[in-house]
Write a structure and sequence with these properties.
This protein is of the alpha/beta class. The protein has a single domain, classed as Alpha-Beta Barrel (TIM Barrel), CATH 3.20.20. Helices cover 33% and strands 16% of the residues. The strands form three sheets. The chain has an eight-stranded parallel beta sheet with strand order 2-3-4-5-6-7-8-9. A three-stranded antiparallel beta sheet has the order 1-10-13, with helices on one face. A two-stranded antiparallel ribbon has the order 11-12. The chain is globular and about 55 Å long. It binds N-carbamoyl-L-aspartate (NCD) and zinc ion. Zinc ion binds next to loops.
Length: 334
């Protein structure tokens, strides 16, 4: 195949930051994607309706001229019913971070089940819960340990729609089939890399993210589910830009920047496994079905021509900088 057409691709987990960084990275997503779930972990976090309106305006301004729907999220805290009712028309869900689990999450939740009253209101108001699912245990075991929390939430709140964000383990893939109210996002990089790519040879800070890439058997389980267009699995890139000065240093920030290369990367991966026909479901249809969203209709045409990944976008180094991919985005029409 030399050409591939995708309709309204969606990125169901995206960090676009604010200020100058927002202006660099948001257009790179909006030029390929018809919509994205915008993460709220700014400093300070997006955790009031007022700040939500401000941030929505900022994202819209930075993506003006593109057929692009920002699906906004609030940062989870102990919200009142009034706050939830006021926010509901403007958000796709609320993102819960365990305190300290990742970038800008110091004000996350300390004790998850102490927030049962908020989960109950979200269930009643039909507001989805998006979760960064990691405990504070040993770094390779954090997600698997958190599966107990997912089980408890899914059981106690059976009508609460829960998205396990950026899953990285075979255990999380298996959990998807156990509870009707669980669904998940997975990143393109976690379908491809393992911990060996991050730290098995010379350390690669540009592949360091949370959750950390895991074992080959984990990667293979994620890949099989994605290639098969698992009905409860959506592409969420977790593209998370940091300036090069925060990546190439001691105390490297967590986050892999993939926004401009997601579709070419996935085309190569799905083609290599002879399932290019399943890519549309993985990058758009599943998200539309699971969230009931209808993004702008766009047509993205990829061609089998080489794309050399730039060394930098602004002062952000993308994943695989300098490498060549066999596919590129040739045109996008709205
Ligand atoms: C994200 C970021 O930089 O905001 N980092 C990451 O490693 N994925 C936060 C997150 O999604 O965990
Ligand atoms: Zn993220």
């Amino acid at each position: 195949m030399t050409e591939l057409v995708l309709t309204s691709p969606l990125d169901m987990h995206l960090h676009v930051r604010q200020d100058a960084m927002l202006d660099v990275v948001a257009p790179l997503s909006a030029q390929h994607f018809a919509g994205a779930v915008i993460m709220p972990n700014l400093v300070p976090a997006v955790d009031t309706v007022e700040r939500l309106h401000w941030y929505t305006g900022e994202v819209r301004r930075a993506t003006a001229g593109h057929a692009f729907d920002p699906f906004m999220t609030l940062f989870f805290r102990d919200y009142t019913r009034e706050e939830l009712v006021a926010a509901k028309p403007h958000i796709i869900g609320i993102k819960l971070y365990p305190a300290g689990a990742t970038t800008n999450s110091d004000n996350g939740v300390q004790e998850i089940m102490s927030m049962a009253h908020v989960f109950a209101m979200m269930e009643e108001l039909e507001i989805p819960l998006l979760v960064h699912g990691e405990t504070h245990g040993f770094v390779m075991d954090r997600e698997e340990e958190f599966c107990e929390v997912y089980r408890a939430l899914a059981t106690r709140f059976p009508r609460l729609r829960i998205t396990m964000e950026h899953i990285t383990t075979r255990a999380a893939v298996q959990l998807l089939d156990e509870f009707p109210n669980l669904r998940a996002t997975v990143t393109p990089h976690h379908l491809i890399i393992t911990l060996d790519d991050v730290a098995g040879g010379l350390l690669n800070p540009h592949l360091f993210c949370k959750p950390i890439a895991k074992r080959p058997e984990d990667r293979d389980a994620l890949l099989q589910a994605a290639l098969a267009a698992h009905p409860k699995l959506m592409m969420g890139s977790d593209s998370a830009p940091h300036p090069v000065s925060k990546k190439e240093c001691p105390g490297c920030a967590a986050g892999v920047f993939t926004a401009p290369i997601i579709l070419p990367m996935l085309a190569e991966l799905f083609e290599r496994h002879n399932v290019l026909h399943n890519l549309q479901a993985f990058v758009s249809d599943r998200a539309q079905q699971l969230y009931g969203v209808t993004p702008p209709r766009t047509t993205v045409r990829l061609v089998r021509e080489e794309m050399t990944i730039p060394e930098r976008y602004g002062d952000v180094v993308p994943m695989w900088a300098g490498r060549t991919l066999p596919w590129r985005v040739a045109s996008v029409t709205a």
